[in-house]
Design brief:
Length: 418
């Protein structure tokens, strides 16, 4: 029998598979049931977009707001200068202030607004930047006031640090300070906004607990930590990575159609888990979709792709992506929302190597990979298989609409036009 909590938030997270560890389930449940609370998740600004790997945290904040509480998205303008060592094999490359600020602006405008409602209301989300307080810290004063609460013994016991040390991979003092900074963030947010809960993936447990311990020792406050299990594919890889790189949430970095196709092509065994995590469908409907077997599971995957795209990019984009996929895969048409590239007419008149165009389109990472794709029969021009690795496309390949359709396997398609 599944556990029942007093708070709606923990009940929803529990039934949707978001709960891995909590510093004090009973205490947190009582606090959440007593009235409006504030919780946060930190996001480092290492790129101009967040990606699917960040979605679990974003959805946790979404449900936090939906159950009557105030979510905070903490942008790591300060901690991004250092780099989180958690489960990294190498030291993160350092970024300058200008790059970090530019990344934060892009993330703020493109990645959160579909999932959270921002504003000045009691339960409206707010975005803060830890650079506002970290950048003004005086190092000696900070060490004196807070360094005494962190022990090296405890820090090296965390799994993320142990893995780096076991691999004999350098772990710098700069990265060690990341744990201290994240712990201090929690304390600062509690002092400024009354925040009582920090959430994140299970790989962040050590960093979050540091904040819980620091608040107890420095301010005699009880704060709480809650983590979700990391999602991995059946072959053990972290979700959100593909052969072509990260699955970005920003439409400028990954089209809504490609985002839709990512979810549409997910492994069958993951459909139920992902419907619970990354859609807002009622659990009764998800249970029906989970029960589908054989070819019928494709209908569940279509629902997953549509709902996941809708919550990230909006209903119009999800419908367009769905219609395009249906046109391409069920009707054989080109579809209006496929990735589109322009080709110079003079270059096309001279002929362009299919190998080059497979690389230019991003379908293949190298010419060697493109050659293997052609040899294996996976490359097609206007739905006709290409077997010659020296094949070109030319003016004669243009269809009646003045376009050329390029396909890689059964699931990747693009349009080229003059």
């Amino acid at each position: 029998m599944s556990k029942t909590y007093k708070s709606d938030f923990l009940n929803i997270l529990n039934e949707r598979g978001f709960i891995h560890q909590c510093s004090d389930f009973e205490g947190l449940d009582e606090k959440l049931a007593s009235g409006l609370q504030s919780a946060y998740i930190g996001f480092d600004a290492t790129a101009k977009s967040l990606h699917v790997g960040n979605l679990t945290g974003i959805m946790m904040l979404h449900w936090f707001q939906q159950t009557g509480h105030k979510p905070i998205t903490l942008m790591g303008g300060g901690t991004s200068k250092i780099g989180d060592p958690s489960f990294k094999d190498e030291q993160r490359k350092l970024m300058d202030d200008e790059t970090i600020e530019e990344n934060i602006k892009h993330i703020q405008s493109t990645c959160f607004n579909q999932f959270l409602k921002y504003g000045k209301g009691k339960t409206d989300a707010m975005m803060v930047n830890n650079n506002d307080w970290l950048d003004n810290l005086k190092y000696l004063e900070f060490l004196r006031d807070y360094g005494r609460y962190f022990t090296i013994n405890r820090m090296v016991s965390f799994e993320s640090v142990k893995q780096r040390l076991d691999r004999e991979s350098p772990l710098t003092l700069l990265e060690f300070n990341y744990m201290v900074m994240q712990g201090y963030d929690f304390l600062e947010l509690n002092r400024r906004h009354g925040t009582i809960l920090q959430m994140g993936g299970s790989d962040q447990w050590g960093n979050i607990i540091n904040g819980v311990d620091l608040a107890h020792k420095a301010d005699r406050k009880q704060l709480f930590a809650l983590t979700a299990p990391l999602l991995t594919t059946p072959d053990g890889k972290k979700m959100g990575k593909t052969e072509n790189g990260a699955v970005w949430l920003n439409a400028d970095m990954l089209s809504p159609y490609d985002y839709y196709q990512y979810w549409r092509n997910i492994e069958d065994v993951m459909v139920g888990t992902l419907l619970k995590r990354f859609t807002t469908l009622p659990m009764e409907e998800i249970a029906k979709l989970e029960s589908l077997q054989g070819q019928e599971i494709n209908e569940a995957k279509k629902v997953l792709a549509y709902e996941a795209t809708k919550i990230c990019h909006g209903e119009r984009a999800a419908t367009d992506a769905q219609d395009t996929a249906q046109s391409v895969f069920e009707k054989g048409d080109l579809g209006g929302d496929l990735p589109t590239f322009e080709i110079d007419k003079s270059a096309l008149e001279n002929g362009i190597a299919v190998i080059d165009i497979l690389v230019e389109s991003g379908f293949c990472a190298s010419k060697g990979e493109a050659k293997r794709l052609i040899k294996g029969g996976g490359a097609r021009i206007n739905d006709v298989s290409i077997s010659d690795i020296d094949a070109n496309i030319s003016i004669s390949d243009l269809n009646d609409n003045g376009q050329i359709k390029l396909s890689s396997g059964k699931k990747k398609h693009a349009i080229f036009k003059v």
